[in-house]
Amino acid sequence: MTARQSLWRAATAGLALGLLFSGSSLADERSWSPGGPNGPVDADASAAAGQLKAWVLERADNQGLPFLIIDKINAEVLAFDREGQLLGTAPVLLGLARGDISPAGIGDRPLSAIAPGERITPAGRFLASMGENLGGKGILWIDYDAALSLHPVITTRAADRRLQRLASATAGDNRISYGCVNVPAEFYEKIVQPVFNDTTGIVYILPETRSLADVFFQTPAVSPSAQEGGPALD
C-alpha cells in the first residue's frame, strides 16, 4: 500500500459509505438511451460533442479504442465503440464547482480538505480502464492521480438527492460530486463495463471555461493508465 493510499484510508474512514455503491432504483433515474438504429443519433448530441467526435474520427485520435465523450455543460455522456458508432447516452452528475483544471494534489487530500470551489471535474483527454475503489466496487478510472473516476450513481447520502438530480429534465442541478462522474447504474452495467472490459479506452471531457481548441486540438498529453485499489472522489 502506498503512502497516498494509507492517507486516504485513514482520512476517509468516516466517509466510507459514500464510496460504496448501493443498489439504486432506475425508476428514479432519467433513462439512459441505447445507440443503434432504434436509439439516438449523433444529431442529438451538442454541437461541441459532435465537433469533438468528428475530430476524433478524422485524426483516429482514439487509436482504435472505445471512447466516451462527457459533455459537462449538458451533463451528458456519449459512449462509442472503436469505430465511432454510438452505443448509448446517459445523464451524468459532475463536480460541484465549474472549471476545467483539477487543483494541484487533489488526489492526495481527504474529502474533508476539499473546498466546494475545488470540487471540479477537469476537462481533457484521458486514458481510462476498469478498476476498483477502496470499497472493492468497480469503477472506470479516468485519472488515478487526481482520484477521478466514472461510476454508478452513489445513493447512500439521501441529502444529496442524486437520483432525483439524474432524473431532472435539465442539467442545472447535476453538479454535486467531488469531481467524479456519476452515471445511471444500468448504463454503467450495460454499456461502460462491457465496452471497457479487458481493454483501455479514451475519455474526453469537454471544457466549460476553456475552448475546445485549447483543450483538445493542440494534442494534449494523455493521463497515465488507471490502476486498481486506490482512492476515489465521489
Task: Summarize the SSE layout with pairings.
Layout (H helix, E strand, L loop, with lengths): L2 H9 L21 E2 L12 H13 L7 E5 L4 E5 L5 E6 L2 E2 L28 E9 L5 E6 L4 E5 L9 H6 L7 E3 L3 E3 L1 H12 L4 E5 L6 H4 L19
Parallel strand pairs: 2-11, 5-9, 8-10
Antiparallel strand pairs: 1-4, 2-3, 3-4, 6-7, 6-11, 7-8
Verbal overview:
With 234 residues, the protein is α/β, with parallel strands linked by helices. It has 5 helices and 11 strands. The protein has helices spanning 3-11, 47-59, 162-167, 185-196, 212-215, and strands spanning 33-34, 67-71, 76-80, 86-91, 94-95, 124-132, 138-143, 148-152, 175-177, 181-183, 201-205. A 9-stranded mixed sheet has the order 1-4-3-2-11-6-7-8-10, with helices on both faces. A two-stranded parallel ribbon has the order 5-9. The longest helix is centred in the N-terminal third of the chain and has 13 residues, at 47-59. The two termini are 21 Å apart. The model is unreliable at 1-29 (pLDDT under 50).
Features:
two-stranded parallel sheet, alpha/beta, globular, 234 residues, 9-stranded mixed sheet, 19% helix, 22% strand
DSSP strand (E) fraction? Answer: 15-25%
Radius of gyration: 16 Å
- Class by alpha and beta content: alpha/beta
Shape estimate: globular
Distinct helical segment count: 5
The biggest sheet, with number of strands, parallel, antiparallel or mixed sense and barrel status, is:
9 strands, mixed
The number of E-state strands comes to: 11
